[in-house]
Design brief:
Blueprint: E1 2-8, E2 17-24, H1 30-40, E3 44-52, E4 55-61, E5 66-67, H2 71-84, E6 90-95, E7 99-105, E8 111-116, E9 121-122, H3 128-133, E10 138-143, E11 147-152, H4 155-160, H5 165-172, E12 184-189, E13 197-202, H6 218-229, E14 233-238, E15 244-250, E16 255-260, E17 262-269
Length: 275
């Protein structure tokens, strides 16, 4: 079974967010897919099943569990398909519960991804452990079905934050009225000269202390800042140690375009016949 490892949301190797991608003819056993993701120990491993040259089903696994949506592994998967598997320049990813993701290969290697917006609602109340887990002052707390989004006073506070991951893990295991699933935590601010917004993302409850670059949560972060900044096109930066840039544009019909680059790090062969 061939596997690719791709650095997403970057044009430079060893930056962005690494994801593993496997293109399969049929879904492997669920336990095998989870074991592969656990062995890879990347924030996500994507499995892509071909329907035809322009249509593919996609699933994503963290080291701990299958996840509902992953932006950077979608970008990595599109990069692999455009490079190795299809002559098409536009693909449709079929996603359980979220419908169709349209992905286009643009000039210069940029990949454009058309996602549904997953807006975050401002919360008047939130778990007290969130205050305990974060050390910097913040202005507001929002939430969508994926994460709490905490608006900080300054980008410097976002950069300097050293959250209590034990408490964030405990928070991540608490179910909420917003969603039947658990919630991760994103922190964000917008006083950067170079970028419209800067964020970081923590998901220790699913085995990811800090995610390098999180495309999926920007379907909520970008609309939030678009409203506050009165803009429809934003450049976002995720300020992990690896870092990554997301080029975003609000579209009609409650959709958002999130675009970025990717580079291939490795391709390998998994010896699944030995299992």
């Amino acid at each position: 079974m061939k596997m690719y490892q791709v650095d997403a949301f970057t044009q430079q190797l060893f930056k962005g967010n690494p994801a593993a991608v496997l293109v399969v003819e049929a879904w492997p056993d669920q336990a095998l897919m989870q074991s592969i993701a656990f062995e890879n120990n990347l924030s996500e491993t994507a499995f892509v099943k071909k329907l035809d040259d322009e249509n593919y089903a996609i699933r994503w696994f963290s080291p701990m569990d299958e996840v509902a949506f992953c932006g950077h592994a979608t970008l990595a998967s599109a990069f692999v398909l455009f490079r190795n598997y299809t002559q098409a320049t536009t693909l449709q990813f079929h996603v359980k519960d979220l419908g169709i993701f349209i992905v286009t290969q643009a000039e210069g290697g940029k990949i454009l991804m058309n996602f549904p917006i997953r807006r975050a609602e401002k919360l008047s109340e939130y778990p007290a452990i969130l205050d305990e887990a974060l050390s910097k002052p913040f202005k507001a707390v929002y939430a969508n079905p994926q994460a709490y989004i905490v608006q900080y006073e300054s980008v410097q506070d976002v950069l300097d934050e050293q959250p209590d991951l034990v408490k964030l893990k405990k928070l991540g295991k608490m179910r909420t009225a917003i969603t039947s699933s658990t919630l991760d935590v994103a922190i964000t601010a917008s006083d950067s000269i170079e970028y419209d917004c800067v964020s970081r993302y923590f998901a220790p409850a699913i085995g990811i202390d800090e995610d390098p670059v999180t495309g999926s949560i920007h379907t909520a972060i970008v609309p939030l800042w678009a409203d506050q900044l009165n803009k429809t096109e934003l450049i976002a930066y995720q300020a992990s140690k690896r870092g990554g840039v997301l080029y975003s544009r609000l579209l009609e019909n409650d959709r958002i375009e999130i675009a970025g680059y990717a580079v291939l790090y490795m391709q390998s062969e998994i010896e699944v016949h030995a299992l």
